[in-house]
Amino acid sequence: MCSFSSIIKYLLFHFHLIFITFFISPFDPVNKNANTEPLPAKEDKDDDDDEKGGEGGPKPMPPFSSMFILSTTNPFRRACHYICTLRYFEMCILLVIAMSSIALAAEDPVWPESPRNNVLRYFDYVFTGVFTFEMLIKMVDLGLVLHQGSYFRDLWNILDFIVVSGALVAFAFTSKGKDISTIKSLRVLRVLRPLKTIKRLPKLKAVFDCVVNSLKNVLNILIVYLLFMFIFAVVAVQLFKGRFFYCTDESKEFERDCRGEYLVYEHDNEVKAQKREWKKYDFHYDNVAWALLTLFTVSTGEGWPQVLKHSVDATYENRGPSPGYRMEMSIFYVVYFVVFPFFFVNIFVALIIITFQEQGDKMMEDYSLEKNERACIDFAINARPLTRHMPQNKLSFQYRMWEFVVSPPFEYTIMAMIALNTVVLMMKYDGASETYEAVLANLNIVFTSLFSMECVLKIIAFGVLNYFKDAWNIFDCVTVLGSITDILVTELGVRSRI
After folding, report:
1. Where are the stretches annotated Disordered (predicted)?
2. 476, 454 in Cβ contact below 8 A?
3. CB-count exposure of residue 184 (10 Å: 0-12, 13-18, 19+)
4. ∠ CA(264), CA(266), CA(267), 5° rounding?
5. Which of 194, 86, 199, 84 is closest to 143 using CA atoms?
6. pLDDT at residue 453 is higher than 90
């Protein structure tokens, strides 16, 4: 505790320096003889902006006394306000929070008196001292609770107070062997405080409002989700109740035969006798509650193939599974996946998108232009003309070649070749004859030659530089070069084997 007292003295020393600096600094006193006539409307609006802190300025001091004794002109309170509004003060606190969280994660839970925990305990003293210092100066700056903008009228400040108080109480009861240091993990929640700066950034504020409003609207969709889940659960109970049982001895199908013992061969060729047991799978549909849990597990996409296998293998009640006994039961899971993982997930995504658009429209209500008008103007500003590379001399060979490659019949022919090439690629299968594979290889060479000819014709028509200005032409050229390389490597490999 000696080190802790030294740290407190160090913090108090620097705090006194700041206090003395503010005490001797020339504050602007209130001029009682100043003109008190109201300013024009525009200046009143500027004053209102100043009282709110402006667009990017620091938050002003509340115009109320703090703790009934510290006025707005009190040097001690103004010093605290100066510290709280320093540019890097909040960043330093967040850094200390991160370091404290790392220290909490680095503690040894098995050996409390380990050397590592002893070192971390001194760091904990420092962190708690910093958090206590922050809490006290904010209480002095903002006041406690009675006026608007006071310390305890902010939920984040209440959380800070609980966390710091818990840490101080933990220090007080350390000697009695009571470990309540886990309450310090709540300090990690303080990293959410930068969310208060979102109101200064309109775009981030729109995103935050979108998330909050989406959570409000999710309730209606969640009710529909649960209703559909309940319907599927009832259907699943009717289809699979009492059919997810099995005997540990796979040779026995009925419960009446699942008795006695059976032999199991271990990996080291040892024979071991085990008792036959009639068991139930971990996930089943014997009642609606378990059906809801099983269907929710299936909707997560984790482990559902095993549940599908059990459903397909299910036979009758009080009878063991038979592989592929009812393949038609897979239709139930196909429909379920279409309704829940696909349909409802997209509904939630669409809700967030729609809410975000509504928030954006609310922010634009004060503008004179409507949404469609703004979209038209944005399109006109960002629109760029399409570049068309056409030879100037219409009597040249290059122009005739250009006219040929841009004609609709040429484009349709290329599209037909792409479709046929795709079909040829789909015709490969394992175990094909050599003649069949040779035909496919020759067709691949033919299509590669045709696509290569297309690239050559377009290079002649557009020119080398203009051809490679188009990203799609670059993609076509790379694809053709890759196909040619594949053919050469394949042919060389075949000849080397011969």
Report:
1. 35-65
2. yes
3. buried
4. 150
5. 84
6. yes
How many CB atoms are located within 10 Å of the residue 57 CB? 12
DSSP secondary structure letters along 236-273: HHHHHTT--EEESSTT--BGGG--SEEEEE-TTS-EEE
Task: Please name each of the domains of the chain with its CATH number.
Answer: 2-200 (1.20.120.350), 203-243+286-384 (1.10.287), 245-280 (no CATH), 397-497 (1.20.120.350)
What does the pLDDT look like over 463-474, one tens digit per residue? 998 899 888 999
pLDDT at res. 176? 58
Which pairs with CB-CB distance under 8 Å and at least 24 residues apart come from 15-18? Answer: 15/79, 15/133, 15/137, 18/79, 18/82, 18/83
Quote the Cα angle for 320-322-326, to 5°: 115
Helix (H, G, I), strand (E, B) or coil at 54: coil
One-letter amino acid of 242 = G
CA distance linking residue 10 with residue 436, whole number of Å: 86
CA gap 375, 360 in Å, rounded: 13
Q: 465: closest CA among 453, 452, 474?
A: 474
CA distance 124 to 224: 49
This prediction's pTM: 0.52
Tell me: the pLDDT tens digits for 346-387? 888 888 788 777 766 776 666 666 777 777 888 888 877 767
Nearest to 281 by CA among 232, 314, 257, 259: 314
Are residues 108 and 117 in contact, defined by beta-carbon separation less than 8 angstroms?
yes
Give residue 327's pLDDT.
92
